[in-house]
C-alpha cells in the first residue's frame, strides 16, 4: 500500500507528456479505472470478512494481484 502511494505521488514528477489531459491517454484511464474498482472491491471484501469464507478470500486474492 505504501509503494502504491509513492507511485501516485511520483507520477506528476515523471510525467513528460506535452498534453496534460487524461482523456487522451487510454492506458492511463484503464489503469485508473482498475485502481478504483480494486479499491472498492477490496473495501467491500474487507467489510464482509467476519468469518473467513471461500468466495471472499478468492476475490480478495485476485483483486490484490
Structure description:
The chain is an all-alpha fold and 65 residues long. It has one domain (2-64). It is 72% helix and 0% strand. The protein has three helices and no strands. The chain has helices spanning 2-14, 26-48, 54-64. α2 (26-48) runs antiparallel to α3 (54-64).
Label this structure with key terms.
65 residues, mainly alpha, 3 helices
Outline the secondary-structure elements.
Blueprint: H1 2-14, H2 26-48, H3 54-64
Helix pairs in contact: 2-3
What is the rounded distance between the termini?
Answer: 12 Å
Helix percent reads over 70%
Overall structural class, as computed from helix and strand content, comes to mainly alpha
Give the helices and strands as they follow along the chain.
Answer: HHH
Quote the beta fraction.
Answer: under 5%
Shape: elongated
Query: Could you report the average pLDDT, rounded to the nearest whole number?
Result: 81
- Tell me the domain tally: 1
List the uncertain runs. Answer: none
* Major sheet characteristics: none
Extended strand count: 0
How many H/I helical runs? 3
Rg calculated over all Cα atoms:
16 Å
Short note summarizing the structure:
It is built from three helices and no strands. The protein has helices at 2-14, 26-48, 54-64. The longest helix has 23 residues, at 26-48.
